[in-house]
Amino acid sequence: MKFLEYTPLDRLNAFLSHLNLGERTIKGCLEAYSCKHTGPDKKLSASLENEILQLGKSLDADSSSPAEYLMSESRSRKTLIYLVLTLYHMYPDYDFSAMNAHQFFMEETWDGFKQIFDTYMFEASKEWNETNEGGSLFETLYKALDEVVKLAECEIYWYSPDSDADPSLERGALWSFSFFFYNRKLKRVVSFRFCCLSNVLADGLLMDELSYDQDGEIFDVMDM
């Protein structure tokens, strides 16, 4: 997997890097990758395929879940491997070796993603309209994604792990989403993760940490 630089994504990333809305902060990031394996990817890819095959054998034969879809055929297994490799590149310090296929869910239509975006990014979209020209936030996102991965040819995946296995979940997070737009023909994937943080909760946790550190320093002095 190779990171790809695209100017249309840079504009959105600059806007979503830390959008303070008072009591809440919206953060988002788009990254594009080529699905051509680098040296380390080849070994990891082989290991992941073996793991996926073992998981596939343990699935209920009558299941029609997205997990079974992703593991049922060689082509689909490659898709899942690309998605996991993308996660490795997004979070190089996180270990996804025990990642289960059921943590991926396929969004069958663009409309499904749009509904989630419109619901959770409503305030961010209002802020965009006040500070940017040339189309809404969603329209700008659509054009940028279409330029990079040609949305009409894309498969859209939603990464939905348990909270304790989500590397994107930050302190004070109210909600978090990670989507992948994968173009099989272009062998290219764009990840889009966006979340909402409670500034009140985050500040409270920070104060607790500072208080804990100060208490620790007092006890250290007393011990001396």
Provide keyphrases for this structure:
single chain; 224 residues; alpha+beta; seven-stranded antiparallel sheet; 7 strands; 50% helix; 21% strand; globular
What is the SS-derived class? alpha+beta
Write down the overall geometry. globular
String of helices and strands: EHEEHHHEHHHEEEH
Radius of gyration, in Å, reads 20 Å
Number of strands: 7
Distance between the termini: 53 Å
Could you characterize what this model shows?
There is one protein chain. With 224 residues, this protein is an alpha+beta fold. 50% of the residues lie in helices and 21% in strands. Strands 1, 2, 3, 4, 5, 6 and 7 form a 7-stranded antiparallel sheet that branches. Strand 6 and strand 7 form a beta hairpin. Helix 2 (39-58) packs across helix 3 (66-72) and helix 2 (39-58) packs across helix 4. Mean pLDDT is 80; it is low at 205-215.
What secondary-structure arrangement, pairings included, does this model have?
Elements: E1 2-4, H1 7-16, E2 19-20, E3 24-34, H2 39-58, H3 66-72, H4 74-90, E4 104-107, H5 110-120, H6 122-131, H7 137-149, E5 154-159, E6 173-183, E7 188-198, H8 199-223
Antiparallel strand pairs: 1-3, 2-3, 3-7, 4-5, 5-6, 6-7
